[in-house]
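step 4 of 6: structure.
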Amino acid sequence: MLGTVWVHVEPAPGGVASISLELLAAAISFGQRVEAVCAGGDPDAISATVGEHGASLLRHLELPGGALVGPLLGASLAAAVGAADDPPAAILLATSYDGRDVAGRLSARLDVPVITNVTELAASDGALVGIEPIFGGTTNVHTRFAGAGGPQLFLIRPKSFQADAVGGAPAPVADLPAVDCGASGAARVIGSNAEQAAGPKLDEAAVVVSGGRGLGEAGKYEMIEQLAELLGGAAGASRAIVDAGWVPYSQQVGQTGKVVKPDVYIACGISGATQHLVGMKNSRHIVAVNKDAEAPIFGVADLGIVGDVHQVLPRLIEALQARG
Amino acid sequence: MSGQAGRCWGRVVIGAVELQTHTVRIAVCVKQIPDPADPGKLDPDTKTLVRAEKLILDESDSYGVEMALQMAEAADGEVVVVSMAPEESFGGLRTALAMGADRAILISDEALAGSDALGTAKVLAAAMRRAEPDLILTATESTDGYTGTVPAQIAELLGLPSVTFARSVRLGDGEVTVQRQTEDGHDEVLCPLPAVLSVTAGAVEPRYPSFKGIMAAKNKPTDRLGIADLGIEAGEVGWAGARQEIVEVAPVPARQAGEVIDDDGSGHERIVAYLEELKVL
């Protein structure tokens, strides 16, 4: 077992981001003591949730209006590590928009590296080993810290651990003092816009339907959205069509982009580049439709249809609509 | 931009010749990577990626280059592309120059082999101190290493603000207004310059280098720097500075491929049946 492990917990509408609960589950399996660190959100609600998921303390940073999380939390965490009676052996953060900012800032402040894209952790001689998939998930690289001093920093990919409510009491809340981070903290959020598409979130949906270059043109992505809606799922995309500007980055599934692990993943007109496979190959069931029988996506599909998405998808949509 | 930004040079008068200098300098940090179409290999001894012979511009970086070019064109600015790579690797920088960047900086040094993300950020931050840009653009992550930490690390090392995951950027007077991707949508962020921005893929449509651009690229100024030029000690970067070690490289059992059928006009029915089997329907 390690000593104390800190977990960066991210507030989300209605509580705590699901990835943060996954990180807490990882932390309690390796740490003797787990403390949550969090910027913004409602500390009372968060302390109840993180307590239930095994945290013994919530270190909470009051986020001034308009401040970005990264620079302020990075600097404040670095100071807290230095001031702690029981400094953390490891700090776990999520491969999320803010998690990566905090990790990068913290790493530079403390002058310790970050082990990134971790999907599994293992303990060895009091140190943690981060396991990262490369080459489209065909190979795992095991990395550990060597002589860095300071806490071991890990950025963990979503859907790597199962959240586990162990039933603890609300964690006591300790104030995490904000450090003046000068020019680094000068950016200001002047407006927030929710663009939540109807239906479940991409990384939480039980069914994900994704489209790729095989759709031929941006307008055809509508078929993907329609199918996702009919199946009560979320619509995703390959990097190729995000790069082409057909759909926003927020819908990208892959190594760069979101990692999804739905019950059913339906890949339409996606060849299955390693870039994409990393983000979806751990789905429970995979269906692929592609006209190229040699496409690598068929190598991971439970059901593969070698056919034209422009033929198969309209028929599938019609069949689902007919069921009502 | 007016003098508000503090780093603007305005016009320089030398004798009777008035030289128009740039009003804003934008540096784009780019990575030159092996062609992602070629599968990579790990060196069995060092357990790091075997460097391919020929490196190309990471497609992720083409968005930052394009965005910089558009801003520079509108503001009469200068675009400098900066890359850390082995000595002979210039193909990716040449692509950026052919797209329209004004000059390139290549940082090469034997001591840099094996650098991790923090080491890379230290080198790029040192290059930025020397180049003194108003705005530093990066990709959100590289295609081959994809740590995604370098932009925030560069910003922290320079003591600058950063806005990561920018999907649109408007250059104003000494500041930028950025749409930053969030979990639920986007934030509008106002950020004073100088600043570091990471740009998402698809934010703009990168131009293809024209024939004229390709020819012009050959004569554009290029600086080649070593770590000594940047005041960096060999122990801070490369293998020595990485302070993490790969203890194992293990193959992952392949996922079993399932049933693959040719669509004879009834492929959709097979999908419906499968979804029923899984109780999705």
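step 5 of 6: annotate
 - The mean pLDDT of chain A is 93.
 - Chain A touches chain B through 103 residues (CB under 8 Å).
step 6 of 6: archive
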